[in-house]
Design a protein that fits this description.
Length: 369
């Protein structure tokens, strides 16, 4: 893949992170990007060129993108669809068109209508940050993140293998799904939660007193479950307008579940209320370690640590001196555990078990999940 030419339309956090990863992986690749505004320089693209991430910036798609082997559509979903119409007469037959949007239905329908099924493979890197833009991009952003691929009925094995290998090379975990299944899944686990978070924040804002006591005391659990409400309003407006059917289906179910809880509070129904929290607790606790279909099991442990300099380094040294490799490590910033809880992920179950035994000998309090 070293001599490929990759084009980017839209160059924010995800597009920039993909470009950074590709530059590190394939230093001889040609990476180009599109500036839709001919009269106004794009500071992000110019910065990327200064950092030698991008080779060239074009203001004319027909000039710069006709030789691309793969084109990443990294603009909002509805904008990406408009670009497909322009690219149809420009790209070479072997070119792969892919996007990074979290909704696949609309763009797949547009691809079919434009007879681009043989070129298109939908993509959704399930990674991100509250911080947007190329300035916050990172070549490691996609590492260990699921990267959903949604091929069409006309996608060739060669094209699918190409992008699958590319995703793996970037350190992400490729997973092939039907685009309709994808939209239902992300509606339930991502889109509806964002709506709930935003509506909860707005509820507190509207309910707050003039001296803003709620705002002053909003911390801990409230900030944990509403963190995602800080995301881009334009992006989430686009998502709601493009994955409407799936979102509405799950949102209506959620509203009914809230009505059931409201009724249980009126009765009051003690058993029902207990079941709500107990069922949720059991399922939530099962999420990190469950292997589902193609998704690999995660081997992780949690432990209390003292909040002092060198605490993490001490644990890492203990494990390294016993030849136990760490896949990922970091502090958990929520109230599910006591303060100062460290999450350590390992490459396999054997390493995880060895680490638990070893750290317990050093009198660390371990939480296995």
């Amino acid at each position: 893949m070293g001599d490929i030419t990759a084009g980017f339309i839209g160059f924010g956090l995800i597009g920039g992170s993909i470009a950074r990863a590709m530059r590190e992986l394939y230093p001889n690749a040609t990476l180009v990007a599109y500036n839709h505004n001919k009269d106004v320089p794009n500071k992000s693209l110019e910065l990327a060129q200064e950092e030698q991430i991008l080779d060239k910036i074009y203001t004319d798609l027909s000039v710069g993108f006709s030789k691309c082997d793969i084109i990443f559509l990294c603009a909002p979903v509805l904008t990406n669809i408009e670009y497909l119409k322009q690219l149809k007469s420009i790209i070479k037959p072997s070119c792969i068109l892919t996007d990074v949007g979290s909704v696949k239905g609309n763009i797949h329908e547009a691809v079919t209508n434009l007879d681009l099924d043989a070129n298109f493979i939908g993509g959704h890197p399930m990674a991100g940050s509250e911080k947007a833009g190329f300035i916050n991009s990172n070549s490691k952003l996609l590492e260990n993140a699921y990267y959903i691929l949604t091929p069409t009925a006309k996608t060739s094995d060669k094209k699918l293998e190409f992008i699958y290998s590319l995703v793996e090379d970037m350190g992400a975990l490729p997973l092939i799904l039907d685009y309709m299944d994808h939209d239902n899944i992300v509606a339930a686990i991502s889109h509806v939660p964002h709506i709930i978070a935003a509506s909860l924040v707005n509820l507190v804002k509207k309910s707050d007193s003039g001296d803003e006591k709620m705002r002053a005391l909003a911390a801990g659990g409230f900030k944990d479950i509403t963190r995602i409400a800080s995301s881009s309003p334009i992006m989430w407006q686009n998502i709601c307008l493009t994955n409407t059917k799936s979102i509405k289906g799950f949102l209506d179910q959620y509203i009914l579940s809230l009505q059931d809880i409201s009724s249980a509070l009126n009765d009051p129904n003690e058993d029902f209320l207990y079941e709500v929290f107990d069922t949720a607790r059991e399922y939530r606790d099962s999420i990190p370690n469950k292997a589902i279909g193609m998704m690999a099991k995660i081997h992780e442990v949690y432990l209390d640590i003292i909040d002092e300099a060198g605490a993490i380094a001490t644990i890492a040294t203990i494990l390294a001196s016993n030849n136990i490799s760490i896949k990922n490590i970091g502090i958990i910033h929520n109230r599910e555990f006591q303060d100062g809880v460290l999450r350590i992920e390992f490459y396999n179950e054997e390493s995880s078990a060895q680490a638990v035994d070893l750290l317990r000998k050093y009198r660390y309090t371990i939480y296995e999940r």
